[in-house]
Amino acid sequence: KAGVTQTPRYLIKTRGQQVTLSCSPISGHRSVSWYQQTPGQGLQFLFEYFSETQRNKGNFPGRFSGRQFSNSRSEMNVSTLELGDSALYLCASRPGQGRELFFGEGSRLTVL
Amino acid sequence: AQSVTQPDIHITVSEGASLELRCNYSYGATPYLFWYVQSPGQGLQLLLKYFSGDTLVQGIKGFEAEFKRSQSSFNLRKPSVHWSDAAEYFCAVGPMDSSYKLIFGSGTRLLVRP
């Protein structure tokens, strides 16, 4: 069974631009979560989606948004990029009743 | 507030030596506890988990961890470290509410001396 797939793996943007990251969960997994990883703040929860509904959101500004499609694939969007948004963005999925998160390899965003 | 503390930022051990990585948590109920490993440029791989029952849990790659409720700890151990174990290790606790959110520690970077 294929793992969690994130695209793109690497990208470079400039301040003020926006970016969209994509995540395909493990087949059959209906929950998708996003985390931001930075050297200063570590791993921080962004949001979780289940059956196309956002169930919770972390303490991030409204520039960070996401959505989930009917096939469970998810996207997150960051608008008006700031230098501090440079990070590794990790997507994780889990089955409906599962307790374990399975992570993708991440999308590394660099904002110049 | 719920939190996870990994007191060691870096640990260096010789190949073949034993390893213990510390993790302490603050949580209002019996948590789910996890250890993940991250190699450079990679995502997180689940090493092991504790939900309930036997407090000594076995994971992949020869790792084990022991849940000690009285000490609010979930330390990771390995009897003999291999050079390929060099990576960053994260302890995590969750879920925090109806949404499945994990709280991660700040990580411990393991260096292995040949």
Write the layout of secondary structure elements.
The complex is a heterodimer of chains A (112) and B (114).
Chain A: E1 5-7, E2 10-13, E3 19-24, E4 31-38, E5 42-50, E6 53-57, E7 64-68, E8 74-78, E9 87-94, E10 102-103, E11 107-111
Parallel strand pairs in A: 2-11
Antiparallel strand pairs in A: 1-3, 3-8, 4-5, 4-9, 5-6, 7-8, 9-10, 9-11
Chain B: E1 3-5, E2 10-14, E3 19-21, E4 24-26, E5 32-38, E6 45-50, E7 56-58, E8 64-68, E9 73-78, E10 87-94, E11 103-104, E12 108-113
What structural keywords apply?
heterodimer; A: 112 residues; mainly beta; B: 114 residues; six-stranded mixed β-sheet; four-stranded antiparallel β-sheet
Please tell me about this protein's structure:
The complex is a heterodimer of chains A (112) and B (114). With 112 residues, chain A is mainly beta. Chain A is built from no helices and eleven strands. Chain B is mostly beta strands and 114 residues long. Helix content of chain B is 0%, strand content 50%. In chain B, the strands form three sheets. In chain B, strands 2, 5, 6, 10, 11 and 12 form a six-stranded mixed β-sheet that branches. In chain B, strand 10 (87-94) and strand 11 (103-104) form a beta hairpin. Chain B starts with a strand and ends with a strand. The A-B interface holds A 4, 6, 31, 33, 35, 42-43, 45, 48, 55-56, 58, 90, 92, 94, 99-106, 108 and B 32, 34, 36, 41-46, 49, 51, 90, 92, 95, 97-107.
